[in-house]
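User: Can you predict the 3D structure for this chain?
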Amino acid sequence: MKSLVAPSLLVLFLLSASAGCEEQSPAGLPMVKMRIGNETFQIEVAKSDAEQEKGLMKRDSMPDDHGMIFVFKTQRVLSFWMKDTRFPLDIVFVDSGGKVVSIKQMKAYDESNTSSDEPARYAIELNKGAAKRCGVKTGDVLEIPTAARASGP
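Assistant: Here is the predicted structure, written as structure tokens:
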């Protein structure tokens, strides 16, 4: 009977240990749930320079309820481009207090810069049309999940 208890305890330990782990995206990035407007999204968190440089490049699509948040250490005017990004996106620029400072649309493969209208600390990429669909607008305040607020690159 002792041999039956030990494997059971091991299984319980492994299950409880994995319960606290963050979910990861197919790209291996941590994911958090985030309320944006009237919807909840599964958001990949890109903090390192390498993660941010790759972003959503070379993917064919993204589920409607997914996105990616880019986390920067300091607030500044942010600029993004769509090199090797195969589908159009909305980009929501957010300052360190969670206020949406601008929302822009970006076309697939467009290598011109798309910049925030004001300094921002976060940029959230969603599928094109998602920002309008969920009702988010400039001036709204979003709650940035704790896992995404940690210091960036």
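The helical segments are 2-19, 49-54, 130-134, 146-149. The CA atoms of residues 67 and 126 lie 5 Å apart.
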